[in-house]
Amino acid sequence: MDKLKKLLKKSPTLYDAASKTRYNARYLKVRVLGTSVKEKQWATRHLRDGKDLLGPAEGEEDWVGSYWKSKDHPHRILLVETIAQYKPNSVLEVGSNCGPNVYLLAKKFPNAKIVGVDINPLAVERGNDLLRREGFSNAKLICTKADELAQFENKSFDVVFTDAVLIYIGPDKIMNTIKEFTRLAKKGLVFVEWQSPKPDSGLGEYFNGNWIRDYTTLLSNFASKEKIQVRKLLREDWPDERWSTIGAIINCEL
Ligand SMILES: C[S@@+](CC[C@H](N)C(=O)[O-])C[C@H]1O[C@@H](n2cnc3c(N)ncnc32)[C@H](O)[C@@H]1O
Fold first, then answer.
1. Which CATH number does the domain 63-253 belong to among 3.40.50.720, 3.40.30.10, 3.40.50.150, 3.40.50.2300?
2. Alpha-carbon dihedral angle through residues 81, 85, 90, 96, given to the nearest 10 degrees
3. Are 193 and 161 in contact (CB under 8 A)?
4. Which of 57, 175, 182, 200 is deepest in the core (most CB within 10 A)?
5. Domain coordinates of the chain in residue numbers?
6. 55-92 pLDDT, tens per residue?
7. Is the model's pTM score more than 0.90?
């Protein structure tokens, strides 16, 4: 595979054609198999190359650890501020990884119940360990999928939120996933996701390997439009070309 890559790189035209073919093949796969493709990728991310990494040595960089270390990422300030408007006693993050947002919320609201769920078992295991070491008794992570939240009772959280997760949920699951969030949330939903400028983007358009959609249109199935606010992310919120162009924080009062 590496040899083939090297060979292709010698001819930009061939490399370009091969990249396009690969992208189209991936698109076809997610179109046919739906969200399950991404679910499998995330659920098994720690098993890449056949290695079940039970966490790296102290100080060693790794993908779960890099989320934990990103607690200071500037967009999280905006996210926590937006959630704080609801004065929450309970918050659920769907797709929390090891819990950088859960950590920030547990610190800000020491008397609130903060729960994160994630599809990746290693992220959950290590996150619970890290949260325990920080001494939080009000925060925990659970391993489950975004659309498998039946273990939580109706209206059991003031706020349900996602941060870079719905971009992986395809048109086959997005409506039921959001419907499930509205079953669980009492006061509001907050999403940091890719916001399409096109109101006709429907259940989502495939863009750079993920899903972009107009959340105002989508959420208007569950709340009146005046209760939905979309605030585009700025470069100072997320210093990344893509996120500062199409990223947004979407706040929906229920
Ligand atoms: C880009 S990371 C964002 C993590 C975290 N929200 C943050 O802000 O640091 C996406 C996370 O969503 C999780 N994820 C992806 N698809 C999921 C699904 N269908 N159900 C639950 N978690 C999912 C992944 O395992 C990963 O931890």
1. 3.40.50.150
2. -30
3. no
4. 182
5. 2-50, 63-253
6. 554 555 578 888 999 999 999 999 999 999 999 999 99
7. yes
The residue contributing the CA closest to ligand 1 atom 26 is 97
Distance from Cα 39 to the centre of ligand 1, integer Å: 9
Per the CB < 8 A criterion, the answer to whether 205 and 213 are in contact is yes
Which protein residues are within 6 Å of ligand 1, measured from CB?
A: 38-39, 42, 67, 95-97, 100-101, 118-120, 123, 145-146, 163-165, 168
Q: Measure the N-to-C terminal CA separation of the chain; round to a whole number of Å.
A: 50
Ligand 1 closest atom vs CA 43 = 25
**pLDDT grade, residue 45 (50/70/90)?**
confident
Beta bridge partners of 32: none
- Ligand 1 centre and the CA of 170: distance in Å? 14
139 Cα: distance to centroid of ligand 1 (angstroms): 17
For 60, other C-beta atoms within 10 Å of its C-beta total: 9
